[in-house]
Design goal:
Helices cover 59% and strands 5% of the residues. The chain contains seven helices and two strands, in the order ααααααββα.
Length: 176
């Protein structure tokens, strides 16, 4: 079981994500999030999936696309750091990614399949790393970061956004 990273193993701006991860087997949690996300959004119509809870906020589809895109980037960082690459890895502009994602033109089912594919790839990488690889340190977005911290950030980021989907999107859709 992968141990929780210490506070100095990642940038403090990622603390809210790491804190959201329960003390369970991280691989099991990551795998269960696939089905959790599918169940969360099953029964949502295409029209409902374009819902925005406020002006200027992302649509439900865009949030789902954001989770997948962010995981792609974080998994790439995880790979680079776990393999011992010390090259500083830049940050990314999430709003730019969402603006160019075309998420609202894709079906909710396609976006769910995309998230599942990304997560399966992340799990494949996760399962091949040994204790030494998890403790390797690289630099991502200007902060020293361990590979294990990135795994927790991936899980916590999904927890965070699935919570937002429940609280701000799905609850409002159900009230309509």
């Amino acid at each position: 079981m992968l141990e929780r990273p210490l506070a100095g193993e990642y940038g403090s701006h990622f603390e809210p994500y790491v804190e959201k991860v329960p003390d369970v087997d991280l691989a099991v949690l990551l795998e269960s999030q696939i089905e959790e996300c599918i169940q969360l959004l099953s029964g949502i119509s295409e029209e409902q999936s374009k819902f925005r809870y406020a002006e200027g906020k992302w649509s439900l589809k865009e949030v789902l696309g954001h989770i997948a895109d962010t995981e792609r980037i974080m998994s790439y960082r995880l790979l680079r750091i776990a393999r011992g690459d010390k090259t500083p890895l830049p940050g990314f502009e999430e709003n730019l990614f969402v603006a160019h994602s075309q998420a609202d033109t894709r079906s909710i089912n396609d976006l769910l399949q995309d998230f599942a594919a990304v997560r399966i790839a992340t799990l494949s990488l996760f399962r091949q790393l040994d204790d030494e690889a998890w403790m390797r340190v690289g630099n991502a977005s200007g902060h020293d970061t361990t590979a294990r911290a990135i795994a927790y950030i991936i899980a916590g980021h999904a927890i965070h956004h699935m919570g937002i989907m429940k609280d701000r999107y799905l609850s409002a859709i159900q009230d309509q």
